[in-house]
Design goal:
This protein has 93 residues and is mainly alpha-helical. It has one domain: Orthogonal Bundle (434 Repressor (Amino-terminal Domain)). It has five helices and two strands; from the N terminus they run αααααββ. Strands 1-2 form a two-stranded antiparallel ribbon. The chain is globular, with a radius of gyration of 17 Å.
C-alpha cells in the first residue's frame, strides 16, 4: 500500500492542488488531506484511497510496489521520440 509520502509526491509531481486531486478522484478534499497526513487512514478509508491511486495511475504514475524492486513513485509516461535529423548518433561511449 502506498504511503502518505508517496501520495504527496505524486500530487506534487503533477502540480495538482488538493482540490484538483480530490476532483480527479471523485472524493472530498478532506479525504485527500487525511490520506496524505495519516499513514493508517488509507486502511480505514480504502475506497477513497483506491480512487486517489486510480486518478494518479490515469496520469501514468504508479505508487504501489506491484512487482517493482523499490518502493516509491514511478512515472511511466512514455518518452517522446527523438527528432530525426538524418545524422547518426555516436553511441560508442
Amino acid at each position: 500500500m502506498a504511503s502518505s509520502a508517496q501520495l504527496r509526491a505524486a500530487r506534487a509531481y503533477l502540480d495538482w492542488t488538493m482540490d484538483r486531486a480530490a476532483e480527479a478522484a471523485g472524493i472530498h478534499r478532506r479525504t485527500v488531506i487525511r490520506l496524505e497526513c495519516e499513514d493508517g487512514y488509507a486502511e480505514r478509508q480504502s475506497v477513497g484511497f483506491k480512487r486517489l491511486v486510480a486518478a494518479y495511475r490515469a496520469q501514468q504514475i504508479i505508487l504501489e510496489g506491484e512487482g517493482l524492486a523499490v518502493v516509491g513513485v514511478l512515472i511511466t509516461a512514455p518518452t517522446p521520440p527523438a527528432a530525426d535529423t538524418g545524422h547518426k548518433r555516436d553511441t560508442s561511449l
